[in-house]
UniProtKB/TrEMBL annotation:
Name of the protein in its database record: DegT/DnrJ/EryC1/StrS family aminotransferase
Active site, UniProt feature: 187 (proton acceptor)
Record PTM N6-(pyridoxal phosphate)lysine, positions in chain: 187
Single GO biological process annotation from the record: polysaccharide biosynthetic process
Record-level Gene Ontology MF annotations: pyridoxal phosphate binding; transaminase activity
Amino acid sequence: MNSESKPIYVTQPSLAPLSEYVELMEEVWNSGILTHNGPKVQQLEAEVAEKFGLNNFSIVLNGTIALQMAIKALGLKGEIITTSFTWVATISAIKWEGCKPVFCDIDPGTLNIDENKIESLITDDTVAIMPVHVFGNPCNVEKIDSIAKKYNLKVIYDAAHAIGSTYNNKSLLSYGDISATSLHATKLFNTGEGGACIANSSELHEKLRRIRFFGHDQEKNVIEDGFNGKMTEIHAALGLANLKYFDKVLRDRQKKYFYYKNFLENKNSLSFQKLDLGTCNYSYFPVIFQSEHQLLQVEKKLNNNQIYPRRYFYPSVNTYTQIVDYQENPISEDISKRILCLPLYKDLTFDEIQRICNLVVESI
Ligand SMILES: Cc1ncc(COP(=O)(O)O)c(C=O)c1O
């Protein structure tokens, strides 16, 4: 198969050499422990916390469960103001915890929640704000924090994309009452499936750990309305193997992000996410076209060449009327029709990026 006939997908998991995973798996086999907060989970929590300077870090099954646990741990019941430019999991987590999503429109540049539109959505039933650091781009955490303080609301960041991003030289995951991240196969750092909660106090941290483990305290009394959110040793071992390569993966993404950007930025009908607060992890390469028609032309051309970018996030989640009451968010609805994430991953070559860019330019 020559390079032109090999399909190129939007992403591929970043994986350590198999031999390094196998070595860790031998240790798991020999230990006879597969789950229940085993040694690999504990080691992974300690290593990630140390690497990113995080306190109160708990690993769980996936990012969606991490969001649900955050809502549960904060005891929220009522309206949660969130963004409509997100993955459906943000909304399903809110709904599964018996709360109501209230959609705030986005800033058309940063693609994050427009912090200037939050206050007008606050009612007597509002209990929290749940912004998303879209594509790892930091939200205006200071402004959001001051709004939350003024109205006595909690803040949960959907930080599914945000590992490796920083704000004020601190991990972006350390902001909010709780941040919830995803360690899914497509994320910059992955455990196959996985997620984590990062709490801003040791009390909340202990509560999250009890929720993760059926609501048990240390003596196995059930003192919390918990469930089973535990990660297995098999997934944790994958995380330990992959973590060693995190810096390399991050640098690679950044290089490729700018390679794409330098090539495409002077093509006047294209625009890009505005990255002006903190430091993004460059985990995605989203391009915003002038119209949905133009996007569809580009997508078709790429697909004809076996290149499969992804319309992400599409559609705007406020339009999922099977699960939510429609609330108009024109900017999110418009952008989601015009945004396409181009392939970006460790094994993607610069020649392939060049070919993708040429095809994009040819078709606009
Ligand atoms: C913004 C956002 N929130 C939440 C999630 C859910 O994460 P997970 O797939 O680990 O459940 C995702 C998944 O991609 C996401 O993009």
